[in-house]
Amino acid sequence: MSIDTSKVATSNSSAAIADKPNPVGAVANWADERLGLASLAKKNLRKVFPDHWSFMLGEIALWSFVVLLLSGVFLTLWYDPTMAEVHYEGSYAQLRGIEMSGAYASALHLSFDVRGGLLMRQMHHWAAMLFIASMMIHLLRVFFTGAHRKPREMNWVIGCLLLILGTLEGFTGYSLPDDLLSGTGIRAADGFMKASPVIGSYMSFFLFGGEFPGTHIIPRLYVVHILLIPGLLLALITAHMLLLVYHKHTQWAGPGRTEQNVVGFPMLPVYAAKAGGFFFIVFGVCALMGGLFTINGVWLYGPYDPSKVTAGSQPDWYMGWPDGALRIMPGLETHIFGHTISWNVMLPILVLPIVMFLVLMVLPFVEAWITGDKRDHHLLQRPRNAPTRTAFMVALMTMYGLFWAAGGNDIIAIKLHLSINQITYFMRVAVFVGPVIAFIITKRWCISLQRKDQEDLLHGYETGIIMRSPEGGYSERHLPLSPDRAYVLAAHDRDPDVIAELEAGPSGPDGNGVEPKKGIAGALEGARQRLRTAMYADNVQKPTREELEAAHHHAEHEHELQAGVEGEAADGHQFDGHHAVEDDRLRADD
Amino acid sequence: MSDQHGPDELGPGEHGSSDLPDKYAGHEGEIQSADEPIRNPGLPQHTWRPTDVDPKAERRAERQVAGIFGLAALCAVLFVVSYFVFDIGGSPEDDVPTIFGLGASNVALGGTLGLALLLIGIGLIQWARKLMSDHEMVEMRHPARSSDEDREATIKALNDGLEESGIARRPLVRNSLLGAVTVLLAPAVVLLRDLGPTPNQVAEEADYPGAGLEKTVWEKGMRVVRDVVGTPIRPGDMEIGDLFNAEPEIIFAVDEEGEPILEGEPLLIAKSKAAVVLIRMDPDENKPAPGRENWAIDGILCYSKICTHVGCPISLNERKTHHLLCPCHQSTFDLADAAKVVFGPAARPLPQLPLAVDSEGYLVAQSDFREPVGPSFWERDSQASTTE
Known about the structure:
A: Cytochrome Bc1 Complex, Chain C, two-stranded antiparallel ribbon, two-stranded antiparallel sheet, 59% helix, 6% strand, disordered C terminus, B: 3 domains, four-stranded antiparallel β-sheet, 34% helix
């Protein structure tokens, strides 16, 4: 396709440069003489970011955090973190005259007597859900594509910390209205604390300022919710972003995209507009949800009363998985020397989440230790090309999902008319067996996809066109992939052992004469080697150039026997001669 | 940041030219070598958009974007209008206007604000997609590590600084500083001491009834009264199978001047520990634990309502089986069998309150609970209750 570039519109021409001093220039000069912004801006204004839909997930988290800050500030103007008792006399008739804490009364006031107050409350809650959900999905994207590898391990750790803090922030936040549901949550949290060995009851008495419930917990949670955790979140998000800019964003392998460069659009103007626009979209979605979908209608629950509870009490969804673990844990306690150790609470709610987050945080380091890979990685991996890693995360997801489902065992029992006992017994086994099954299936699935890629590379893609030979036999026509597509499929690294073999030549690796280590170091090294072997087992290695040429040569020969149709549309008509197809493009070229 | 090089932009003419693969695919020290099966084909040719080559399309896109921004402004104005037009409030008698069964004010404010924001976002992105340059640019990466020169210079500067400080040569100064800073942790920790009293202090010194983890407000002769209304209960008020939520009388009691005896914090604490359930069953069905044979009155049993798991109040009763289910984590207790755990994560039975009848025929407690109620804690001596 030829283009008369003389007609090219202004959008792609270089901008005019102002050569006269103007007011903007004067301001810029004033600022630069004092702040030296130009040398910083020079490097970053036109910084290149690659484009892919999945890079937007982290952005959702970032912008929903901004929405949280904005709507949260609004809420603080009316919310009153006090547990002093008041008689409610506001607009909500059903609760008028009832005694409640000042905190609950102010939450009702915000909902019924401040115009836009309910909107802001609901936007705040929806944005919090979006914040945590998008962080989780962003984490999965990063891990499945290998973006956590060197040099980005620290940013992975920061991301995990953000997820933990976000979860705690959510819990402290939904506890503040001091309604019956959130009070029940705080009471359970008190039970969790008391289950800690040795210091449990002290922790509880210090946090609550005496016996549960006391009158201190709401103001204390408030300070944690609006000062302590947001401050940490803000600092960590800043570090997360600075590291992102410093490392430059990862990109997908593709024509012209390598480990050494980053290809994409500049910050100014394209990403300033796209990311800035996306902020408004996230903000807008939160506003629409806050306007149209009721969330946490605290007026329905009533004020907190320590002797009452509602049926089907459940925490917000992101707290659901430890709650599920708590539900399916058998009731084990140890009584020893006049003391009680509550395994039934401690293991699922104190130990399990900490272990889960630690596992998450050390993943990049464990992976690097097993692979021994010390290289920088800026090209993303397709999940199928790291089957063991992909399968491991799917196993973790499965475990998370099963725990989460166990957190709703009462709801499952009611909706599906099942016995809650049977669901619980099933879950006790499933949380261990399910991840193993998920691991095996995912790993085999990935390897099958690798084989499919290999097939496409060597023999071309399936056109769906069935040919009949003069002898009467049928066969499907395969056509070669476009060069760009083929490059993408073959852009990933071979496994290190295969590389070593290729580099060592036909004589094979000589072991470099390194003496085997002894003792613990030797055992560790042995474990590492076994893990490494298991990690790469059954991977399909992309073809060498010779293999590819041989396969293509073979294919060409086949094609000559059938028909010469290279470079033509694969819609079937090139084989039947019904119309000319010279200008059609091959499907694989797109 | 150490990104010293400006982005080296490629003009349109360079895209897809034959020198690109060599220029950008040649990796130093990279394993990608002669055995790579497929050469990097280089960046694809830039394709012009209709808005790049057709002034009409360009102007159309311009009008489109401006139109979207205009609509956003309109929505913002409508937001302000809705703010003043729609009443809010939660009472049916106030006749608050509704949309889709929801408060009209909230729906209108959320809808207009959401649309205004969405339209601004959509307009900006449309602007970027249709009218801003869409030439891909290439920027070279640089290793995250500093250059060797920088490292050497840093180490030298650090060493010089440390040397001049004398921190290595003067261990006395260094160690005394470390010691002083370590001791400084003590004030930081001690300062938090007054966050709350210790469990023992509460049990021994607190001036409200039933203070401490081991006690509740129940005492000998205290009436068991109905939850919410506070009226006392005669055994005859309950039929077999009934389950009452009940409280100790002191929760509702007033002194001579009509002031409640328990108020505020002590009231909340009392409620959080002393809530009970009463159940009446056929005395033949009940299997009392040893030593508890005289704790029931005419088949009426009284158990703590606070779950021994993490402390939720329990109230879901299965009438036929005498099972009581906790709505939080589904621990199930058999009230006919000393409230032992029959299912779920709780480890201990619900504590039982020994009942008696006072001179007026109302249900009263024989004493406080004989063991702590609620969730387990480290100092709890549970041996006694479990061996029963």
